[in-house]
Write a structure and sequence with these properties.
Layout lengths: L2 H22 L5 H5 L3 H9 L16 H13 L3 E5 L3 E6 L3 E6 L3 E2 L2 E2 L3 H16 L6 E9 L5 E5 L9 E3 L13 E12 L7 H6 L5 H17 L10 H19 L8 H17 L1 H9 L3 E3 L9 E3 L5 E3 L7 H4 E3 H14 L3 H15 L8 H22 L4 H22 L8 E5 L6 H11 L7 E4 H8 L15 H20 L4 E4 L5 H5 L7 E5 L4 H14 L8 H5 L1
Parallel strand pairs: 14-16, 14-17, 15-16
Antiparallel strand pairs: 1-2, 2-3, 3-9, 4-5, 6-7, 6-9, 8-9, 10-13, 11-12
Protein name: Aminoglycoside phosphotransferase domain-containing protein
Length: 564
Amino acid sequence: MEASSQREVIDFLSTATAYREKFLGPHWSEESACVCSTITAVKRRRSSAIAVSNADKASKGTLEEELRPIIAALTDKDVTHTMTHTSYVFLVGDRLAFKLERAVKYPFLDMSTLPKRRIAVLKELCLNRSTSPEIYLGVVAVCKNEGGQLFLVPLRSCEPGVNTVTLQEEEHQQAAGQRELAIVDFLVEMLQFKQEDILDEVAKRGELTHDMMEQVVDQAVLFHRHARVHHEAQYGSDAMAWITKDNLTEMCEFASDTSKNVDADLARSVCERCVKDTSTHSALLAKRLEEGKVRFCHGDLHLKNMVLLSDRRPRLFDCIEFNDDLAITDVLYDIAFLLMDLLHRGLHSLANITLNRYIQKTHDIEGLALLPLFLATRAIIRAKVSCAQMSSESTDEAAMKKLQHRTNAYLHLAQQMLGMEEPSTMCVALGGFSGSGKSAVARLLACDLTGPIGAVVLRSDVVRKHMWNVDLLDRLPDGAYTDENRHKCYKKMAELAQQVMQAGFPVVLDATYTTDEQRQSLDALSTCQRVWLDADLETRAQRIARRDTNNADASDMTVDKLKK
């Protein structure tokens, strides 16, 4: 393996340690992450290396054909074998799965050699364990001894550049006395989950909730926060320029095939607009690259790559590990895939909840200027995927019509997203004492205001926490609430509101606005509609008590403070 490739894996493993400590706590160890797998447990029970049984020694089929009976004998479970365009998957009973990368090479993926597959499986384990440690259980080396007998050996470390494994003293007798085995491939050991629990299916049943999407955003933001930062120029405006120009070339080529029934004028129009807008925003893209907002992201953040586990909380899985150019991107472009997916499904309110949760957690107001471009680009890429599927689908007329409809729907969505780039004049300020229901009304109103994705909510409690550079749930000192600091907060909210509207989004302001000075901050927003909410003291106290008990809100108000 080249030295640069070895360093790459070492970097990933170092970053993964930080991920795991964040998600799994201080008791995590390299052994527990990479060795504590079902295979290891079985090996310990049998007190032997994991070898092919005598009945399997004569097998001379392909590797995937040889592996199925080995895994079945090892786990004492029925094993089914499926194949995708990139991997073989062995489903063991109803709990485990083993994935073997195929030795294939595509324009977007190269798994043609063992060193490339080694890097890929280690990346897959390290990246995905940050969000789904329960799903990604370990990496298993597929090994052979000198007699050609296959063995499955859990990796005891993820040291790169090793073409062999050395068995422990008590194990090597099971390998015909051979201590060192040649690695011929790798398996990723995973937990099986029910297809019905993938968020794509949950959404189809109408069971996707606001809380689920907020939990998804929280995981994605934490993933981004700990992800490796990239400052290389190739991942800034140049990367987006390449994507948009490639979209233009490929969509026009697809649209020229009349059998696909693609709206050629619309395809060219939205693609050309994206190329133009990328040039317009090149300075902002470069600025975000410099500021560290380009990172090694999930890369494939949509509902089909999220699943509910037994605790009924969603997990992200199946990061892109096989192509750095697809994964290294602006963090907002990563989130844009999820937002676009929700909008394409007609889940407008969930898209709005997702966007506002992301803004709350990151305060990335400046990035909103890029969001229409990012959303449109994501939609166009999905349109290209649908076109490519038309070329590979059977001649089934119903399937072709479905793909044609999907392609044009994505193109229309891209057109709709690009229409957001005109500045908005819609602004609503909700005032009222603490506990009067402002935040609840703001959430509902934001979903219903005009615009493809609704309004951005700016809440004084959240803006104040970002101004003080603390976590949303951290309590601020009383000094944060002096008249001077309150004035700074309300002034900042008005400035942010102008920035949001300039980016093309309606805005809802959520603050008390109980003094003339606070209300005067709205004078700079000439189109702002002002609404006062009220509730009796007892009702407000009950709401604040519930909020304080849950300890999941940015407000520092307490019942004691309310009654003073």
